[in-house]
Every structure is written in C-alpha cells, then in structure tokens.
Amino acid sequence: MDELIPLRLSTLGALPQGVLVPTYDRARLSPGIVHVGLGNFHRAHQAWYLHRLMQAGEAMDWAIIGAGVRPYDSAMRDRLLAQDCLTTLIELDPARTAVEVTGAMIDYLPVEPDNGALIAQIADPSTRIVSMTVTEGGYYNGPHGFDIDHADLRADIATPDRPRTVFGAIVAALGLRHAAGHGPITLLSCDNLQNNGDILRNAVVTLAQATDPALAKWIDRSCSFPNSMVDCIVPATGPTELDLVHGLGIDDKAPVTHEAFRHWVIEDKFCAGRPAWDKVGAIMTDDVHVFEAMKLRILNGGHQIVANAGELLSVGTISDATADPTIGALFDKVEAEEILPQVAPVPGFTPEAYLDLIRARFLNPRIVDTTRRVAFDGSSRHPGFLLPSLRDRLASGQPAPGLALVEALWARYCVGTREDGTTIEPNDPMWDRLQPQARAAQSDPMVWLQMDDIYGPLAQNPEFRAAFADAVIAVRDLGVVGAIEAYCHGARTPRASAS
Questions:
Q1: When you count CB atoms within 10 A of the terminal residue's CB, does the N or C end of the chain come out lower?
Q2: Which of 285, 319, 347 is the last residue of a domain?
Q3: Residue 10 domain flag
Q4: Is residue 100 predicted with pLDDT exceeding 80?
Q5: What is the pLDDT of residue 497?
Q6: pLDDT digit string, tens, across residues 134-148
C-alpha cells in the first residue's frame, strides 16, 4: 500500500481522487457556535449541515468551536487539533461509498476541571449559539425532573465560578454576558430527548435560580431554547473504521462512518440569528414534537428492542440482529402492535412508512453498529425511548406484553451474562446499581421495578406489573429465544405473581 496521506489543511490537495474536500477558504471563517460533545454523531450530522452551507459560500461567520467537559474529551481534542479539526466522513450505502472531508469546525477548547476556557468562549460576543450532544443521560433528568440535588450540580452551586457541568458553565458564561451587555444567545440541544429544548431550558434556568434569581429570570425571558430532532445512524469508530479510512489512503485519527440518511427538524426560535440550515435540507418548523415522537419511539425505541436481545444472543451488530429471525420478529411485532398505534403521522411519513424505512436502515450491513454500543446507558434510553410508548399504551386500555418483554430482556441483560455464558462487561453509568437489582429480579421480578427514578408510577400499574413479571419468568425459564417465540406466536408463558 502507498504511504498514507496525513489529514490536515496542507494535504487536502493530495487526497485521493473522488474525496470531496472543503472548497471554502477556512482562513475566512470566524466562530459563531460553541458545540459541547464532539462525538461522531455531531461531526456526521450538525457539523456536516454547516459544512454544506459553507461549500455554498454561506455561513462563514458561524464556524464551530468544539468543547468538552469530561476528562476523556481531551483525547478527542488532541486528535482533532493535530489534523486542523478536519474530519473524514465515509457514507456507507449498500449501493455505494462516498467520502467527504468537512471543515466547519476551526478550534477545540482546552478541557479544564473548572471549564474556564468554555465559559470565556460562551461569554465572548462572537458566540451566538451553544449546541450540545452530551447524551441522553447527561441532562441529570429523572422521572421527577431536573435532579438539582445531584452531587455535580450541588458542586456547581457551591462554586459557581468553577463549575464541573456544562450547565454550570453555561450559567456562569451567561452571567458574564449579561453583566457585559453582550445579549442573550440560543441554547440548542441535539440529543435524543423529546422536548429537548424545554429540558435544556429547565436545567439551565433551575441551576441559575439556585445562585442568581435575577440572572435566571433574564435567561428564561431572553435566551432561546429550540426543540430539535436529529436522525442519522453513526457507529462508533474502532479498528474497522480506521482500516476503512486507511484503505482510502487517508491517515485520519478520528474518521466517521455513517448511513446515507440524515434528518434534522428544528424549532425556528433563535434569538441571536442562525445559519440557513434549511437551505441544505434541515426542516425549520413551529412544531417539532410530532417528528420527535415518531423518531424517538420507532427508531430509538426499536434500537433498544434489537440491541438488548442481540447482546443476550451474542449477535454483534444491529444489522445482523435485525436480520435474525427471532429478534427481527420481536422488533416487527412490538413496533407494529404496541408502538405505532401511539405515533401520529408527520408531513411526508406515516408511522408505517417510517417503520419500513427504519427496518431497511437497521438492515444495512455496511453500517457496523454494534449491539453493545446501542445497548449502552439503558438506564437513560429505556425511560426516554420505550417507557413513553408503554405509558400511552396502558393509558389507552391496551395490553403491552411485548414492551413488558423488552423491559424483561433489559433486566436479563443487566445480570451481566449472555445466553452462551459469556460475560457482559459493564455497559451503563449505573451498572453497579443495575446488576444487583437485575440478579435479584430473576427470582422476584418486582425488585427491578423498585427503581423509581426509571419507572416512576409505571411500577404501580397492575397490568404492567403482571406482564413484566410474566416476561421475566418466561425469559428465565424458556430462555431468550423461547420467551420471544412464545410472545410472537401468542403462546402461554409461565405465570408469575405480580404482588
């Protein structure tokens, strides 16, 4: 193989033919956005939309400054700065491969315990949008709302000038902006949470209220918190992805693979301006909620259905798990009978048509998305993606044996062993708490439902308690395949007491 070409500005002209590169002069770019959480998804999605605008000669004053608030973000910072914040995107469609280098990001702030650099950049008058992808679990949000008593947040309240969380950094920076007269900004969540803008507003305003009520009032009155829905399947980068980019002749230390589908729906509420993302395919609307509900329930909920069962049966990827006859049948039946009836159509899609699209996307064998990655942080993803469907289903007076089985499979997953006896390594920030509960639930299913921060009032619903107990016993006594087949074929399963 020829020597790899290191990815950086000075080598763009030497990249292999067919690789799209920035045509805009990056020296002309100036910052307008601070983005917290520079993972693969942001670089394949929001940063790509901005890059496309720049390719058309627009949004030159909206470049991205990257940021992180966790120590592990430093490694990504080092990798990206070494290659001038460029990223190779590799689109993997079953019919073709497309490769593009994007350059909408121009810097990455130092990752500091007191978040000083982040506070200073948000406070800078050039910053007009702060966006974030900090994962669903990063919002300190439980069934009873924002957990202001969390140790991280109490620390921010005690030392507001040296915050440890992104929300504390935002509050500190907004205090500086307000004092300097620089004006409000837009805070844009791009995480998979329904009403994510409302959740972000509540987090920031609640935290500000604890230290500076006048500032909290200004933030609530003046800053914008649009809701948004984001959609693109983007695997984590590992040896397979590195081999792929090296096979193209490019030495990129942080390449990103993704599917040939993107969707971004944004509530058009920006108090300090915005890039014209709608010119490159984003949908600006006054009602994001119906789009959110369809995507989070069908796609993200479907991901959890497939991932937990796949992990338990030692099926390594989402495409293989969806293609598996047993797991695929579970996905189809739960989606069609217990999720779709609670989903409203959106412009361009009925729930049935969207499910067909999702199934095809899950089956794409070129997207090597692992069941382990998708199963990560179930303690945030089940409450966010599956339990809303379960609550609505029960509220309508309809049974939900499939969703109860999916919860039982998650409980079995958290026991920490697969059906073949291999060990499931910890895969949730709450693993040390989940595993003892899961093990105890194999003999007393109600132990699992005692996690009030996850199940809330659902744990007291007699229909769900009975269905969940039956499902746990079925998985235990019949095995994963046997329990799924019994559900799919409508067979009677072992009964359990839900007392």
A1: N
A2: 285
A3: yes
A4: yes
A5: 42
A6: 999 899 987 778 999
Determine the pLDDT at residue 490.
Answer: 86
The residue type at 221: R
The mean pLDDT value for 248-254 works out to: 97
Domain end among 234, 258, 285:
285
- Is 496 within the bounds of a domain? no
Claim to verify: residue 408 and residue 445 sit in the same structural domain: yes
Convert 7-21 to b/e letters by CB count within 10 Å (16 or more is b). beeebbeebeeebeb
Regarding whether 166 and 214 lie in a shared domain, the answer is yes
Q: How many domains does the chain have?
A: 2
Q: What is the CATH number of the domain that holds 418?
A: 1.10.1040.10
What's the pLDDT band for 495 if we cut at 50, 70, 90? low
pLDDT of residue 498: 39
Q: What is the average pLDDT across 273-301?
A: 96
Judgement on whether residues 125 and 220 belong to the same structural domain of the protein: yes
Instruction: Name, in order, each residue with C-beta under 8 angstroms of 33's C-beta and a sequence gap of 6 or more.
Output: 50, 62, 63, 64, 65, 127, 128, 129, 130, 131
In which domain, by residue range, is 38 found? 5-285
How do residues 344-400 score in pLDDT, each as one tens digit? Answer: 999 888 999 999 999 999 999 999 999 999 999 999 999 999 999 999 999 999 999
Section 52-57 average pLDDT: 98
**Residue 392 maps to a domain:** yes
The model's pTM? 0.90
pLDDT at res. 215: 98
Query: 367 and 277: one domain?
Result: no
Question: Is 427 among the domain residues?
Answer: yes
